[in-house]
Amino acid sequence: MAPLTIDQFSAKYQNGYWDYDGAYGAQCVDLFNFYNRDVVGAPFIQVSYAYQLYSSFPAPASTYYDKVPAGSVPSKGDVAVWSTTLPGSGGAGHVAVVMGVVDSTHLLVIEQNSPTGAKTLVENHSTSYLLGYLHPKFLPRGGNLVGNGGFESGGWSRTGAGTNMVVYSNGQVSGESARDAVHYLATNTNGGSVYTDVPLSTAVPGTYCGSAWVRTQYPATGAAGTLSLWLLGGAYQEQGLANFSGLSNGTNWRQVTSCVTSTTPHTTLRVEFYPTPGTPTLEIDDVDIH
Fold first, then answer.
1. C or N: which end of the chain has fewer Cβ atoms within 10 Å?
2. Which residues are CB-neighbours of 202 under 8 A, at least 6 positions away?
3. What was the pLDDT predicted at 185?
């Protein structure tokens, strides 16, 4: 069987799907071992408690993962491991797969038997009591600079009085769901934009590349717009952009990419979407900037 992508794994398991009960009786370590099997291609890794995945780092974990300390910016697909002092864990700690970074103190994860409930689900989880991350060696290092690229929390603004911006959840619009996790953004305008700012201190030269998944709000087709990456707060502004048009709807997301290179230091990276005035509502999910 071909390996699953991280998004396919999330879609498979977040609704409580199990193709076998697992060695631990549907505990968090079972989900970790399903991830090993389905995505990483690693064999079963035996521990007595979840926290030991990081503290003991038992074989064959070191063959398939690198240890990354708490306080680092994780990558999508990293495995987060919490300590014995995590409230509600009964001294066992906890383990979950990182789907994104919400903010400086919260991760978006897929987890099983969390301290707040036994259901397999995608939810925000505090980084308090975190021991560190196991980073799959087949994934590139480096976290998403956009803290809320999946629209699971706040952080996005709009320009222009005629710009509409709504964050929808799965099923809220008939026939639609997020590309990943629970939420996605919808916007249209008569000349404005939606954006988020990322603080930074650029190297000179330095290149930032971004991607996003876009579509038209169902049942229409034909949304269009521009993804722009701005480097601000320097001697002058620098920009990279990508235009897109003719978008379909439903599950037919299209990925759009753009890059910008700094030639002078900057303090802010702005990720901005300009929907084309007069075209149908544009929907956006999984914005990723590295």
1. N
2. 208, 231, 234, 262, 265, 266
3. 97
Handedness of CA 110, 78, 50, 58 (dihedral sign): positive
Which burial class, exposed, middle or buried, applies to 162 when counting CB atoms under 10 A from its CB (0-12, 13-18, 19+)? exposed
pLDDT of residue 158: 97
pTM: 0.58
Amino acid identity at 25: G
pLDDT at 259: 86
CA–CA distance, 14 with 12 (Å, rounded to integer) = 6
- The conformational region for residue 52 under phi > 0 = left, psi -120 to 50 = alpha, else beta, is alpha
DSSP state at residue 117: B
What pLDDT shows up at residue 97?
Answer: 94
User: Given this model, what pLDDT does residue 15 score?
Assistant: 60
Token pair listed for 209: 């590349």
Q: Which residue has the tokens 């560190």?
A: 132
Q: List, for the chain, all residue ranges whose pLDDT scores fall below the cut of 70.
A: 1-2, 15-24, 103-104, 116-118, 140-143, 201-203, 205
Q: What are the backbone dihedrals phi and psi of residue 273, each rounded to the nearest 5 degrees, phi first?
A: -115, 130
Q: Which two tokens stand for residue 145?
A: 């600079």
Contact 35, 79 (CB under 8 A): yes
Cβ-contact 284, 232 below 8 angstroms: no
Q: Return the residue matching tokens 């379909």.
A: 248
Q: What is the CATH number of domain 157-289?
A: 2.60.120.260
CATH 3.90.1720.10 corresponds to the domain 6-136? yes
pLDDT at 100: 77
Q: Which sequence spans correspond to the domains of the chain? A: 6-136, 157-289
Residues near 145 by beta carbon (within 8 Å), at least 6 away in sequence: 198, 200, 208, 269, 289, 290
Rounded to an integer, what distance in angstroms lies between the CA atom of residue 13 and that of residue 225?
34
